[in-house]
Amino acid sequence: MTIMGPPASLPHRGDATSPGLPSILRFMRIPLRLLLACFLGIAASAWAKPTLYIIGDSTVRNQTAGQRGWGDPLVAHFDPAKIEVINRAIGGRSSRTFLTEGRWDAVMANLKAGDFVVMQFGHNDGGKLNDERCRASIKGIGEESEDIIRQTDNQPETVHSYGWYLRKFVADTKSKGATPIVLSLIPRNIWKNGRIARSTNDYGLWAKQVAEQGGAPFIDFNTLLAERYDALGEEKTTAIFAKGDHTHPNADGAELNASVLTESLRKTDLANYLLPADLWIPRVFSDHMVLQRDTPNPLWGTARAGSPVTVTIAGKTATTTATADGKFRLDLPALPAGGPHVIEVKTSDASRTFSDVLVGEVWLCSGQSNMDFTLAKTDKRYFAGTTNWEQEVAAANHPEIREFKAEWTLREDPQQEVEGAWKACTPETAGDFSAVAYFFARDLQKQLGVPIGLITCAYGASTAEAWISNEKLAATTDFKPLRDAFHKKFIAYRDNAKLFEDYGNALAKWAATDKKRRAPGHPDPIRDQHNPAVLYNGMIAPLVPYGIRGAIWYQGESNVNVRKLYPALQKSLIEDWRERWGRGDFPFLFVQLAPHKTPHPQEPSTSSLASMREAQATSLTLPHTGMAVTLDIGDEKDVHPRNKQDVGARLARLALHDTYG
Q1: Is residue 149 part of a domain?
Q2: Among 561, 580, 582, which residue's Cα sits nearest to residue 572?
Q3: Which of 52, 150, 220, 262 could be cross-linked to 116 through a Cys-Cys bond (beta carbons 3.0 to 4.6 Å apart)?
Q4: How many domains would you assign to the chain?
Q5: Residue 436: CB partners within 8 Å, gap ≥ 6?
Q6: pLDDT digits (tens, 9 = 90+) for 291-347
Q7: Residue 71 CA to chain centroid, in angstroms?
Q8: 221-232 and 251-265 helices cross at what angle (nearest 10)?
Q9: Of 646, 288, 660, 654, the residue nearest 453 (C-alpha)
């Protein structure tokens, strides 16, 4: 435990604010400009690349305990730098009800030229047309219809055939300049004479016929999976379905189904958006990377099943073999500080080369806007720019300081890739470096004389719980209200298709303007950086277990209103990351919240900021932690103090004292 503050000669400035403010936005005073930056960045990113929409039933997306649809794990097979993947499937729906409930209208409101729609229906299309569910379609692909008064709500409806609904989805998709891809439904776990039952004479056949009629690609998913299940056998197949259920796979089954589908999608126009089949290595491994010195460094990825994998660096070699599902991991040999090196990765049929690789000290830099705050004021982070930033940028010629900046990414499930790239620090690139991280690295390098790597994962206005894994959050009963509130918002959004439709219409209007005004906020709670685990899933999980020395953390403003819970949150975050990386109690250095309110004459005990700082300080009881004091370097008019030089310097002094002393 170490606290690093200002030199004794510098005065401290107290502050106090009124407790019990109703909104974190009101408490933060300035962050609307920060939220605007986030909205603009996310909206611009969404419109700059295509989107894949997945539609279907509970075999495609499923929130029931013990069950999982293939659509959610499929997301991780795509390159997030090239395409956005949105799973709009929902349990219990048929081709008919996906239309009548307005869910297709919601997709159409968001669909644009160059997008894709993958569709799978059929499991819920059988049965009576008019019953307590009113979801069955007329069998076949004909144009016949039936007028009914629905039992569910006494409303009139014209019911069409299964093929009619699929044809509409295909035609509507094409009308927007997007690409439809039709799948046959996954098999049920029903066996006869040693083979799993197929749907080649009903819904599987009809899906194929509709695809042919509409000129859409067709994937016979039913047959592909049936053949795979036959090869596994009845016992092993049953093990990948939910217990006692012959329709819904469990998590392992969903992963298998997604992998099988991925290989078929490589034969479609989606091929270029998938992660490579022959050799994929996360983007955090790239030219100009920095590896942690004096310790083995994990390197991982995917290759063809059973392929040998050989990695060489500095005349040393490490080898392994890809598993049956294509995954591999090995440890690069420990190296002293230095470089530049070249890393060569070879498999049986592919190779990758990374150049200008340095070895030195690597730190994870995370938190909310004060960590995301860049050295210069930029188009994306126009709220940023340190004191004297023009001079700082001009002097930032430190090519052995490198930063990997993870793109803002929020996800429902842990991902295996995040967009980003390593950049060497020069006057041309330094303006986009995290300011706190840069000044931290500059002072470290001055004292240590070795390359410094910064992995920056920061998101404005984010809460601590957004950076913690679901498993860790679920292990603490104190966090149940946070998780329950998130689940309630998630279900409300899932069940109200109009929210997504309205968002699509608003986004289209915004895109037709000069895009300088505030973009519409996405209604999906997964896209809200205040919600549990969403940033861990999107930005931290893809980087684990890259070799690091430790972490610096600047966050807390967005948790002030739940500050009584903050000691448990920050403790859980530290423990979670240390457990995930498996590097022991690595150093975790954090920044005390700086003053940003005019001091009041009341006692400090009534100050929400003061009590929040106390909550932060409780983590100092954990080993190898330290806190940089900022009481004297705040800005009473700005939640984003421009003086990031002293913040970085104090974090560096903590590291030099405790980690390198």
Answers
A1: yes
A2: 580
A3: 52
A4: 1
A5: 365, 370, 371, 373, 552, 554, 591, 644, 647, 648, 651
A6: 999 999 999 999 999 999 999 999 999 999 999 999 999 999 999 999 999 999 999
A7: 15
A8: 130
A9: 288
